[in-house]
Amino acid sequence: MLDDNDFQSSDTMSTGDGSDPQDEDMEIWDDIDDTTPGVELWVPGTFFDRLNQFLTYSDPMCARYNLGDIPPHCNWGPGGRGAHLQHENQVVQVWAVGHLKSMLFFAADEDPRPHVRISLDLVHEIDIVAVQRLMSMANVVPEEAPAIFHASSAPSGSDCLQIFRSLYDATTLFRAKHAMVQLNPSDIVIGDLVLVETRIERKAIGQQCRAWGTWEISFTLGAVSRLISRVVVKKETPEDTFRLTL
Fold first, then answer.
1. Distance separating alpha carbons of residues 132 and 29, to the nearest angstrom
2. Contacts of 96 (CB under 8 A, 6+ apart)
3. For 126-141, how does the pLDDT look when each residue is reduced to its tens digit (9 = 90+)?
4. What is the DSSP letter of 52?
5. Strand partners, 58
6. 3-class secondary structure, 207
7. Residues near 42 by Cβ (< 8 Å), separated by ≥ 6?
8. With b meaning 16 or more CB within 10 Å and e meaning fewer, what string describes 7-26?
9. DSSP state for residue 84 in the 8-state scheme
10. pTM for the complete prediction?
């Protein structure tokens, strides 16, 4: 669970000196180097300080890391926890930040649970390298790590037929989940800059047996928090001419 330490949004959303904020944005974009997040051009320069907090945040006490800072000496858990990547006997929680590329909800006849699969265009080069390193931990190493970050989840337990609802608004504050506004899936826009919380798991492939034989790596989705909304032009809603009351 997340602690109650708030990630405050920047209180300098304007320059405060009477200059045009767009001028400031242009100055930031003119100073791009290898560490500059690869965000889309509509993201304001005034958001970069807050964005950097998410890209660099780690809490070793809770085994919570951004993608680029996952310790190299992690290992798979013992016994029944062998599917989860752990660090000092704690399941590793991973933060990934990127622009939303897709969010798919689906089910199948053989598995009616509503699965969700989210895809991100990561904004930090070191995060992309980290994903490639993590994928190399698989027994069967993929020929090439995907250019897009993927995480997926399926519900379990008594709520196994409920659609994924761990969507939160962190455009102003990021804090413990119970203190954040929960979003509907329709509130999320493709292109939004989001924080995705995941766990790293291995899934057995090939012959099914109690011992780990061959496996692949995947990211299990825990929560999605919107950091900044993409600006979109809303279409006018057609007038509803239905006159009856049923």
1. 27
2. 66, 67, 120, 122, 127, 149, 151, 195, 196, 198, 219
3. 898 899 888 888 887 7
4. H
5. none
6. coil
7. 230, 231
8. bebeeeeeeeeeeeeeebbe
9. B
10. 0.78
